[in-house]
Amino acid sequence: MTVASQIPAKCIQGKHLAALVKLLFCVLLLQSTAYAAVAEGTPRRVFLLEGFTATQPAGLRTLGAFKSRLNEKGAKDVEAFIEFLELGRFPGETHRANMARHLSELFAEKPPDLVIPISRGALEFFMQYRDKLAPETPVVYCCTAASAATALSLPKDVVGVVDQYDWPRTLDLAERLQPNANTLAVISGASPYDHEWLEDLRRAIEPRLSRYNVRYLTGLAYDKLLGDVADLPPNTIVLMAPVFTDGTGQTHVPPEAAAEIASASSAPAYAPIDTFVGTGIVGGTWTAMKRTGSRWQISRFRFSTV
Q1: 99 in helix, strand or coil?
Q2: Nearest residue to 301 via CA among 165, 146, 141, 119
Q3: Hey, which end of the chain has fewer CB within 10 Å, N or C?
């Protein structure tokens, strides 16, 4: 279970990864006194937990980027592992319990000094089982929507880097570029994780939906989705959430799906997701925020191909 993932590596590269590494070093520094009795040279173990599958290449790139950043910081005594929870392919409680049992056995053999959930699903999973898995181990999370982190009511010793996927400002951008648009198409997948993204999107722009003829292209078979976006009227704004799983249960890599959907679409597509840059969407706005206790550091990004 220690190979590759569906969450794109770029989400913890660059500024996100730099912020994450700073956070983990603070945590490990605070722990330094605990190692006085430990033999010199014993590595500190950092476990990255990814919520999705090990059959896609992005997770290996994520782990590689993380290790490279640690090496740049001179952290030779940090041993990094990554575990893939497969929550998308096996969404039931039985699988979650099995994964918790697997991690319990793994942590008994190699106790973690730090746990880093690197997606919304991984953070939710670990907080559900933290008391059984590693109740005293510090947690630093990343690549999680701010709304999801807030909904979990995280304790003060759980800190991290969150993403604010800025759907209202992304729609602002679309309206400036398409002032005559009268149809809004919303795209999402079929899994529970897709539904969470869809609800975040819908909540964020709900006050503005009455302006449009709204079409929800959600939970569809992939071929039907591609066919439907090809038939959209030209005065349409397409807002694209990630498609992790389609209506037939087939899993997808969201940036690859975004590229295929944008290529098939007869109308411009937008998304506030940095990993969709270069896939053919027109643009979007997103915000990265570092949370340490009750303090936030905010950076906002906007891109447009027009």
Answers
A1: helix
A2: 165
A3: C
The rounded percent of the chain whose pLDDT value lies above 90 is 43
For the domain spanning 167-285, the CATH number is 3.40.50
Contact by Cβ (8 Å): 194, 202: no
**How many Cα atoms are found within 13 Å in the side-chain-facing hemisphere of 273?**
25
User: Helix 192-205 vs helix 120-133: angle between axes, to the nearest 10 degrees?
Assistant: 120
Q: Number of C-alpha atoms within 13 angstroms, CB side, residue 128?
A: 13
Domain boundaries along the sequence of the chain: 9-164, 167-285
| pLDDT for residue 126 | 95
C-alpha to C-alpha distance for 59 and 48, rounded to whole angstroms: 10
Using CB atoms within 10 A of its CB, is residue 47 exposed (0-12), middle (13-18) or buried (19+)?
Answer: buried
CATH topology of domain 9-164: Rossmann fold (3.40.50)
| pLDDT classification of 98: cutoffs 50, 70, 90 | very high
- Give the containing element (helix H, strand E) for 24: helix 14-30
Six-digit token string for 258? 């975004």
